[in-house]
Amino acid sequence: MKIALDAMGGDHAPKETVQGAVMAVRDAEVLGLANHNLEVVLVGRREDIERELAQVGNYPKKSISIVDAREVVGMAESPVQACKQKRDSSVVRCAGLVKTGEVDATVSAGNSGAAMAAALMMCGRIDGVLRPAITTIVPSMSGVSILVDAGANVDSKAKHLLQFALMGDAFARKALDFKNPRVGLLSIGEEETKGNELVFETQALLKKVPFNYIGNVEGRDIINGNCDVTVCDGFVGNIALKAIESTGELVMNGLKKEIKSNLISLIGGLIAQKAFRSFKKKVDWKEFGAAPLLGIDGLCLIAHGKSDAFTVKNAIRAAVRCAIKDMNGYIKEQINNHGQIVEKPETK
After folding, report:
1. Sequential DSSP letters for 51-115
2. What is the pLDDT of residues 213-261, one digit of tens each?
3. Measured CA distances, 277 to 211, 308, 309 (Å)
4. 224: helix, coil or strand?
5. Phi, psi (5° rounding) for residue 339?
6. How far apart are CA 272 and CA 293, in angstroms?
7. pTM of the predicted model, to two decimals?
8. What is the pLDDT of residues 87-127, one digit of tens each?
């Protein structure tokens, strides 16, 4: 099992990416990867990677290899233009390794637009997929839920949302072991009569697909446990995701401030320390690592730009899980069987 890691991608690269790779191969047994002979291929400037590896101490040398890539796509660069001009960048080389079958999956915490552009340029789309989508895992009252699209497509049609739903359902089943995930369409109300034209058109298509479609859901249902896969346009999805992330930070920072406000609260906080740690683990995005670009003909996962070594380790685990469960194979099957339904022709 080989995973390519964009060693130069992310706000804290290459230090945290390299350390995360080492943590993953060291903890392979703990991560449930011991039987898969995990190897992480670090892609980036060789001298920078080797310098960081020299700082981490002992690690299984056979489980880490390096592919030299001389260029880096910055977070502020135009994704498509940068990928076309920087063919020797780490993110493009990672996608190329997936395309040629030299690795089973790739992970990048760098420019997410560049990761999408590189994946499309090198791997292309799964046959029948109209548009790839970014999925993300968010905490919910029932554990976790999935939001798709989280920002890849800011102007989508109903036929695109239909495929997002199919791919999100596949991700939930294969990568997260949901038995019968509840799929909801994000709208301004639960009633079928509420929504915009895109919602109304998408409702009609989702009703034709034999999965657990529960109808319209509201923003609160993403995290209250009432929905497992929330489907929406990427413009709306990205706004919802950022709001959820900031709310989690608000809660954690608010709790810390209140606990430190007086002696009684501080004592209570110390007593409840175990409960707080457990809660933080459930809502911390670092626990989820990375999520795949759905619809790409190869496993390409995106991690948060602020990823530290712990997050990178979990991102590698997520990539292995998607590969083991053959998530893309299931997506191909679902798109072939149900993803070609199109909207009714417009009446003149």
Report:
1. HHHTTS----GGGEEEEE--B---TTS-HHHHHHH-TTBHHHHHHHHHHTTSSSEEEE-S-HHHH
2. 999 999 899 888 899 999 999 888 888 887 777 666 666 667 677 777 7
3. 36, 18, 19
4. coil
5. -90, 5
6. 38
7. 0.84
8. 999 999 999 999 999 999 999 999 988 999 999 999 999 99
